[in-house]
Amino acid sequence: MYEVSIQGKCLLFISDLMQVDLAKPVNLVQIRSKDDLLQFLDSLAHTKGLTQDRFYLVCEDERQSWLDFVALYHWIEAAGGLVSNVQHQFLLIHRLGFWDLPKGKIEAGEQPREAAIREVTEECGIHDLKIVGELPSTYHTYTQHGKHMLKMTHWYRMEYAGKEKLVPQTEEGISDIRWMDFASATKALENSYPAIRKVFEAV
User: Fold this and answer.
1) d(CA 120, CA 115)
2) Across the chain, what does the average pLDDT equal?
3) Distance of alpha carbon 129 from its chain centroid, rounded?
4) Taking the CA atoms of the chain, what radius of gyration do you get in angstroms?
5) Is 178 exposed, middle or buried, given 0-12, 13-18 or 19+ CB atoms closer than 10 A?
6) What is the pLDDT of residue 35?
7) pTM value?
8) Can you list the positions of beta strands (E) in 36-146?
9) If you ran DSSP here, which 8-state letter would residue 165 be given?
10) Rounded percentage of the chain residues whose pLDDT exceeds 70
11) Distances (CA, A) of 170 to 122, 144, 187
């Protein structure tokens, strides 16, 4: 299964209906060819007021349909972290009107784990972070300078034992940083992106 967030909607590329809980209402879309995929994406882009936020694309060839989708975009890789402290609080940032997790583009010659620690440090002002595990990678699309981008983000579970003051990287559009307990973070992330909620739910 491949999962991507596009225009606030979640698309799941599957080949087997066994991957879907058919006991619940679901949106199934048959994808038999690249043309079917293009037609669906076009309708998604031009249909206003869609209330559905999750679509299962049932593909004859799941991997090929995913590769056809990827080929429509400029590929970029990023890395970030879900950080917790000794009080079992989680680190959230507020960026451009949404609660988010610290992350950023992987630089040339950099490994994802290195990039994740660097980005958390730069965006939040804390050091001596420890990676304690990996979390599911996420994919989402966006438009930048007229180009359609597809970003894959590598996510890591991190721990922080220090007491440094949080310093938002304002030049990256970050207006607030907070440590939140699980309930508060869950509530805050209702105003976030599907991919970010997926990372948080993985804990």
Assistant:
1) 9
2) 93
3) 21
4) 18
5) middle
6) 95
7) 0.89
8) 54-59, 74-85, 90-95, 98-100, 103-105, 130-144
9) P
10) 99
11) 10, 20, 24
Sketch the domain layout of the chain as residue ranges: 2-70, 75-201
Phi then psi dihedrals of residue 202, to 5 deg: -70, -15
Task: Dig out the tokens for 137 from the structure.
Answer: 């990678």
Least confident of 18-27, 89-98, 143-152: 18-27
**Choice between 9 and 75, residue whose per-residue pLDDT is larger:** 75
Q: How many residues does the chain have?
A: 203
**In 3-state terms, what secondary structure has residue 71?**
coil
At residue 49 the predicted structure's pLDDT band, cuts being 50, 70 and 90, is low
Which residues are registered as beta bridge partners of 77? 152
Cα-to-chain-centroid distance, residue 123:
17
CA distance 199 to 156: 9
Burial class (CB in 10 A: 0-12, 13-18, 19+), 4: buried
Other beta carbons less than 10 A from residue 153's beta carbon: 25
pLDDT in tens, 181-196: 999 999 999 999 888 9
Class of domain 75-201: alpha beta
